[in-house]
Hints:
Helices cover 76% and strands 0% of the residues.
Amino acid sequence: MLIQRRLLLAAVSGMSTWPLSYVVESLGPILGDADNAVVYTLIGGVFGALVLAPLVDANSLRRRRVIWLIVGAIFIYALTVELAVRNYGPLNLDYDFAVVASGVLGALLVGLLVKLTVPVRMSGKRWAYLSVAGLCGGFLFSLAYDSSEELIVSIGYIAWQVSVCLALNWGRAGDA
């Protein structure tokens, strides 16, 4: 798959956060306190399906690897969002710094998940790309997250997801 298509899927995945948040918010009375967990589970699942799953080549283990990528993406989203919201617990980081740190941590964890699951060769340069992508995406997310509008917040998700997708796919064989 061409890198342009992968980046488009990442943008669609990031943009899906707005309707997902809206739907879950409308189910608030039913979900109660679990509404945030449901949103982050859905966002992580869509990210895993649209951004990470296309990295897996067709083979006999494809279904299993795709499931691991989706479950891993859900776990990474839940972990990094929880760390950011809690300002990294006892570290009591500044909120914006915690969000940027979660962006970097999330990008590196996604790289590790892809390395272990797909598998993809991860050079030092690719880890550096992921770190910068997480930093930039986390920074843009911290700017967007201050908005009360879910549509604006989705810009932060788009920035992070597209930058991580770009870092994972930059220079891959078969991309023209």
